[in-house]
Amino acid sequence: MVPEWLHILSIVSLVLGLGSALWLAVDLSRHPQHMWIMNVVWPATALFGHVLALWGYYAYGRLAAEERVEAAGARDETQPHRRRTPFPASVGKGVAHCGAGCTLGDIVAESLVFLVPAVAVWAGWKSLFADKIFAIWVVDYVFAFSFGIAFQYFTIKPMRGLTVGEGLVEAIKADAASLTAWQVGMYGFMALAHFVIFAGLLGVELRSDSVEFWFMMQIAMLFGFATAYPVNWWLIRRGVKEAM
């Protein structure tokens, strides 16, 4: 049985995530980002990062607001987010950019499998995998990778003035390793939650129609952030991925 404290904590965390995402969406409608895709990235990051995402946005995200970038350009100055964002924070923004795509992809994938269980069968449940969770992870990866590459494409194509084909190739080069690292961290924690915490210690199934599942997903995304961070550091240092 799920302890009452865990149930309440799950609800509180999910409300904080949704509230933070809504708060940022409103603020971004008033102060849109220089790169439009970041208007999606920040609220998506807040879904799991809530307080941390709010801090990151107000500390470094607001520096890239369109109004501030244009004002700097009018004064012939370096853009404020490039001048005042330290490298570790720039890497963090890059990870959030990657992770936002993963987060939205995972949400869509988990919801799809719940609403259409046959999708898990198509992904290998009962034929390749005895446990449904592994088939779901296949679907998760496909959607997370697709969303993540799309996010990177809409960043890198206009930034470098590339064609559609060139933009797609560069987006895959820039984010394939990062996306995979994120999913590895996410899968690692969800495996712990699924097999050890819930099935082993609590003796209950961790289902995607429970608030506890989505609370575990919030934590899993933080693990994904942690595993993707060093990969993004390396990619940016190598010039494969743009600093943000």
What does this 3D model show about the protein?
The protein is mainly α and 244 residues long. It has one domain. Helices cover 79% and strands 0% of the residues. The chain contains 9 helices and no strands. The protein has helices spanning 4-30, 38-59, 66-74, 80-84, 87-115, 118-122, 132-160, 164-202, 211-237. The protein starts with a helix and ends in a 7-residue tail after the last helix.
Topology, element by element:
Blueprint (H helix, E strand, L loop, with lengths): L3 H27 L7 H22 L6 H9 L5 H5 L2 H29 L2 H5 L9 H29 L3 H39 L8 H27 L7
Tell me the number of structural domains. 1
Percent of residues in β-strands: under 5%
Element pattern in H and E: HHHHHHHHH
Structural class by SSE content: mainly alpha
Mean pLDDT: 91
Shape: globular
Ends distance: 45 Å
| Gyration radius over CA | 19 Å
List segments where confidence is low: pLDDT < 50 over at least 5 consecutive residues: none
SS field, number of helical segments: 9
Largest sheet: none
Helix content: over 70%
How many beta strands in the DSSP annotation?
Answer: 0
Protein name: DUF4396 domain-containing protein
InterPro entries: DUF4396
Transmembrane segments: 6-24, 36-58, 134-156, 177-201, 213-236
Organism: Oceanibacterium hippocampi
